Q: What sequence folds into this?
């Protein structure tokens, strides 16, 4: 289109708006208000939706926080079968006060976020496929578990927005489509499992129990190691329980329950471990991760501050 053609189009648009303002002032006002509203939403900065915590296993083992954000400057998918556009920032190593962590920001259009907002299964699919994108894009191997943190954003709001603005541009991850997100019958492509929800009952069940018709006569007690992590003043901070489960291939084969004073691990037809804890723990802040390559379950339980 030449400059003259574009100018003619603009003049035609202004003529139509002038005619609308003269013939129907109310419709003109509504039209302009809607345009202003749409522009405001489109140019609004990215907002945090949820924060995930997982672990990079290779090439170097370390914790990773993933900020999932909504940002309307990321286009919406044109159809359910089209790849979902996303924008990712740079994976950053952050040092704040005494804390050092790795964080990555990913943004989707608001319409994509809304699909998983009220449906846990849809939310889980969006998370799974987001983490799959991270593995492929950054050539890393992530843990087969993740935690939804109680806070929506890791790091500052300004850092997150700057990271996305300077990010890699709009990406189209081929396996990720609206159909994937809305199809709750999609097969699980990995062992990725949510081990901890934001709200936890007094007897915390971290892994969904899988029913079985087998009734073993006797279950083995797995090898385990209990470590109490203390501060410089020898005050207990947290308890780490490392359990070796060589016959377990997927986290869904186990049921894990944590209370204030004990831990129960049951793997039907394979293992059972019931331990009384040396210190009272905060079960609501407990996290668990199953490393499928090593066949090891690691449970981290912060010591309760209750008197």
A:
């Amino acid at each position: 289109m030449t400059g003259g053609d574009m100018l003619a189009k603009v003049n035609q648009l202004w003529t139509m708006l002038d005619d609308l303002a003269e013939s129907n002032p109310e419709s003109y006002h509504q039209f302009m208000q809607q345009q202003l509203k749409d522009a405001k939403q489109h140019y609004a900065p990215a907002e945090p939706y949820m924060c995930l915590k997982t672990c990079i296993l290779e090439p170097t083992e370390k914790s990773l926080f993933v900020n999932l954000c909504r940002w309307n400057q990321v286009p919406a998918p044109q159809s359910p079968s089209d790849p979902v556009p996303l924008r990712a920032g740079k994976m950053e190593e952050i040092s704040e006060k005494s804390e050092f962590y790795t964080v990555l920001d990913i943004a989707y259009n608001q319409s994509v976020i809304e699909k998983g907002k009220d449906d846990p299964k849809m939310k889980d699919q969006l998370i799974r496929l987001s983490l799959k994108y991270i593995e492929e894009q950054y050539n890393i191997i992530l843990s087969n578990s993740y935690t939804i943190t109680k806070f929506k954003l890791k790091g500052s709001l300004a850092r997150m927005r700057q990271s996305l603005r300077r990010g890699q541009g709009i990406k189209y991850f081929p396996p990720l489509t609206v159909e994937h997100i809305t199809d709750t019958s999609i097969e699980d492509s990995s062992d990725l499992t949510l081990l901890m929800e934001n709200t936890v009952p007094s007897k915390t069940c971290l892994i969904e129990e899988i029913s079985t018709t087998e009734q073993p006569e006797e279950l083995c007690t797995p090898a385990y190691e209990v470590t109490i992590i203390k501060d410089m003043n020898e005050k207990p901070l947290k308890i780490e329980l490392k359990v070796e489960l060589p016959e377990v291939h997927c986290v869904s084969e186990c049921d894990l329950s944590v209370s204030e004073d004990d831990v129960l691990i049951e793997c039907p037809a394979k293992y059972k471990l019931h331990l009384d804890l040396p210190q009272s723990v905060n079960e609501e802040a407990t996290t668990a991760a199953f490393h499928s390559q090593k066949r090891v379950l690691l449970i981290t339980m912060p010591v309760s501050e209750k008197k």
Q: What stands out?
A: The chain has two domains: 47-194, 199-302.
